[in-house]
Amino acid sequence: MEEELDISLCNNTLVITTTLLLLLINHKHHGKRCLASTTKNLANYIMLNIFPALTCSLILLGVFLSSVNGFAAPRILHAAAAVRPPSLLHAEKSKDGEDNFISDFCIGTNTFWKGLVMKPVRDLVEIRPATITPDSPIIDKLTSPPELPGIPRPVWLTILGSVPTGLVWYGYYKFSVEEELYQYELQQTGKVSGCGGYGTLFPFVYGILIGFPASFLHIPGGELLVEVAGAWILLGQVNLYNRVNELCTESEDMKSELGLTEGPLFEWWAVLPPPLDVVVGLRQVHFLSEYWRVKRGDTKQDDIIAETLFPFISLPEKFTLKQFFARPKHWFWFTKEWKDFEFEFLKD
Questions:
Q1: CA separation, residue 326 to residues 79, 178, 191, 270 (Å)
Q2: Contact at 8 Å (CB) between 247 and 201?
C-alpha cells in the first residue's frame, strides 16, 4: 500500500513538473495563447487528480487528529465525565464505541479547522465565562464572543443583527451557538455531539470561497465542492435541531420551565424549501435562547417578534405541517382571531 502511494505521488509530481517545464517552453516559443491552453490543462489535471487526493488527505488528517485528541484529552474532561448529570443529553449510552467515535470525530474536526484560523481571530472569539447580562447593551450582546453558559439570543436580537448586515451576523451567530454547545458538552461530559463553531462553519466557508470561483472558471470539481459545502452546513443544522430538542427535554424541570412536553422541533424541516425552513429555524433560535436563559437563571423577558408578531415561533407545541397550515391564528398578530381551516387534506 505504501509503495502504491509513493508511486502515485511520484507520478503526480513528475506530471506537474513536466507540465511546468512545457509551460515555460511554450511561453517562450509560442506566446500567450499556448500559455493559456497549457495553464488550463494543468488546472484540470490538478482538480481531477490532485484535488481529490488532497481532500481525502485532509479528512484522514482530521480523523488522525481526533485520535490524538482522544489519547491526549486533559484530565479535567475525565473528571467531568465522572459527574455527568442524569439527563437525556448526558445519559450513558450502551454503544460506547460508537459514542466515542462520533465525539472523537467531532473534536478532531473542530481542532483541525480551528488550526486554519489566524491566532488573532481565534483570540477574539475565544469562549469565556458568562459576562453578558439581560441589562447589557445590545451592541455588547451582538459582538460578544461565545460564553458558558451560552448567551440567550432571542429572536428579536437575532433579526436585529442579521437583517441590516445581510445575514453576515447570522454567520457569527451560527459559529457562536455551535461553539457554545460544543464547549458546554465538553465541559459537562467530556464528549460532544457536534463539530463546534470551527468545525461546522469553516468547512462551509472554505468550500464556498474555493468552489464558487472554481465553478465560475469552469474548473472541474468547483460545483461539487459547493454542493458538498451546502450539504455539510445543512447536516449541521439538522444536528443542531436534534441537540436543541435534547437540551429542552433534558429534565422535567427544564420542560416545565419552557412549557414543553416534548422536543419542540421537527429536525427534518431543515430540508424544506423557504419559508418553511425559516419556520423551524426561528423556533430553534427561540428555544435555544430560552434554554440558556434558564441555565443562567435570568428572568424571562418579552420577545415581541416571537411572542406577539409571529406567535408560531414561541408555540410550545410540536406542530406538524398540516397543523401549521390549518391554524392561521398562530401565524401573525393580525390572524389571531381567524378560525381553523376545515379542509379535509389538512386533517390529521
A1: 50, 34, 41, 21
A2: no
SS3 state of residue 8: helix
DSSP 332: -
Beta strands in 83-169 (DSSP E): 128-129, 147-148
Grid cell for residue 153: 439570543
Determine the Cα–Cα distance for residues 120 and 96; give it in Å rounded to an integer. Answer: 37
pLDDT tens, residue by residue, 148-176: 999 999 999 999 999 999 999 999 999 99
**Are 107 and 63 a contacting pair, CB within 8 Å?**
no
Sign of the CA dihedral 120, 125, 131, 133? Answer: positive
Burial class for 287, CB neighbours closer than 10 Å (0-12, 13-18, 19+): buried
Distance, in Å, from the CA atom of 189 to the CA atom of 92, rounded to the nearest integer, reads 10
Chain length of the chain:
348
Tens digits of per-residue pLDDT, 278-321?
Answer: 999 999 999 999 999 999 999 999 999 999 999 999 999 999 99
**Other residues' Cβ atoms within 10 Å of the Cβ of residue 306:** 25
The answer to whether the CB of 64 falls within 8 A of the CB of 108 is yes
Which residue, 214, 181, 215, is CA-closest to 196?
Answer: 181
Q: What is the DSSP string of 244-288?
A: HHHHHTSSHHHHHHHT-SS-S--GGGGGSPTTHHHHHHHHHHHHH
Q: With b meaning 16 or more CB within 10 Å and e meaning fewer, what string describes 201-237?
A: bbbbeebeebbeebbeeebebbebbbeebeebbeebb
